[in-house]
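Hi all, a correction to my earlier message: I attached the wrong file for Phosphoglucosamine mutase. Here's the right sequence:
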Amino acid sequence: MTLIKSISGIRGTIGGAPGDNLTPIDAVKFAAAYGTWLKEENQGKEKLKVVIGRDARISGAMIQGLVIQTLTGLGIDVVKLDLSTTPTVEVAVPLEHADGGIILTASHNPKQWNALKLLNHKGEFLNAAQGARILELAEAEQFEFADVDYLGKVTLNEAYIDIHIDEVLNLPLVNAKAIKEARFRVVVDGVNSTGGIAIPRLLERLGVEVIKLYCEPDGHFPHNPEPLKEHLTDISELVVKEKADFGIVVDPDVDRLAFMGEDGEMFGEEYTLVACADYVLGKTPGNTVSNMSSSRALRDVTEKHGGNYRASAVGEVNVVALMKETNAIIGGEGNGGIIYPELHYGRDALVGVALFLSLLAEKNIPVSELRAGYPSYFMSKKKIQLTPQIDVDAILKEMEEKYKNENISTVDGVKIDFPENWVHLRKSNTEPIIRIYTEAKTQDEANTLADKIVAEIENLVTVN
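and the right structure:
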């Protein structure tokens, strides 16, 4: 059982002992720390407001109740969206003129996990300094709660998924007319979370026939919720069986997006951003950003359209910061996270679906043909489980030294750029693991490189 405290929030497994897991005590403490930080940031403001939404995890209602009552106990008003998506909460914060937001989700983690993901008044994730301050406040536990006459109030607003869809459909580049005329037939895997509400609703507004798979938002994930090929055999088979045009897969909080071709083959999670960027850049040329664990294919497509590509450290807040710095018109992460600033600076599967459908409708070609038209790279994503005895920093330093004659970046872990492929090693922000990502011109090369690096790291662990 695990509790991970980081600058991006608190994440852990439900049950067990306080301080070791995400228990009610930990949820209250970190909600109180966040509310106290908001008060520090808004001194002199009479009343603060926070937007709260959650995915469909089994523990969601419990954690939501604890967080909301803690904030109202601090005298902060709460707009409760209840079942929602991460990007929906991000959209709602500025529309509500709120001072912040909290999304209760552990993203792609299994059902025993939950988390508090923290937003600022723009509906964007906090920066490192802000996150560090909240961790300080949580550690000190010096909270001042409101008198009985000044408790916060709770307002329920369950309309925001529809409002979010309206905002997406109002984007100039979303070609709703072409999508409706294409008469797509699509399978949606909502992993029994809130994607099962939001994605079918968006598609139906666009005139798409929806075949639902695991769209009951009860939090009982029918497969590993990370949208990777090995977890998606059911939708692969159903797309072929139903003769659907393609399949759509999202993670539990709907900020990651993957597609399945009409042939039941993965479009490639990395290529979600590549395709959406290709469409946007074809209409409005500009720059792009992704993190350094993402495919080189985005760089190739960006340069094809005459733009400049930059790579940030891993983490949405880092991608967003570099997007703002370079005036990027689209960006995101290779895990299927699309950030389209025309709507908001956050990964958003709803925006990704609308842009991808617009591209496909205008090109009028099968998904498999669209994928074949992009530069062909293959990735391997592996992980090594950590124990408290493993000195990750020392291991990364030794790998850096071993490959010092290659093109190396240490902005985020260690990335080694070889002429024909690359490897990125980093400690995860969300799980007790080392991530090993590789990319090459064939899957065999990517796998071989990953296995070689994993063996070298495991050897270092044994030696140390």
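Sorry for the mix-up. DSSP finds 15 helices and 20 strands in the chain.
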